[in-house]
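Subject: YmaF family protein structure
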Amino acid sequence: MYNQNYCKDQKHVHELTGSTKIFNECGDCHNHRFCTVTGEAIYHNEHDHFHEVKFRTDFSDEHFHEFCGKTSGAIDVGNGKHVHFIKDFTEEEDNHKHKFQAATLIDSPIDFECK
């Protein structure tokens, strides 16, 4: 059944997009791209939070990689906005994994006052 309070209870999310580091061994040179939306904010104290992240990369070199992890805490970028950083490795596939690092986009990017 539809929960009427869902929209009021929902916490913010962020867009996350990036590319993995190039894998280059034994003549196999490739990387992957990813694009996702984080999970809702998870507050671990009254002043900070993180987001769970799960994605599957694009299909390149006959395979893809998956990732399941979390972002850093909030990084203030001014005007009441913030981003999150993530630096990790994808899961192993085709006998290798890829390192990646990315920053989320700000939450509610068009939520500002017009003056």
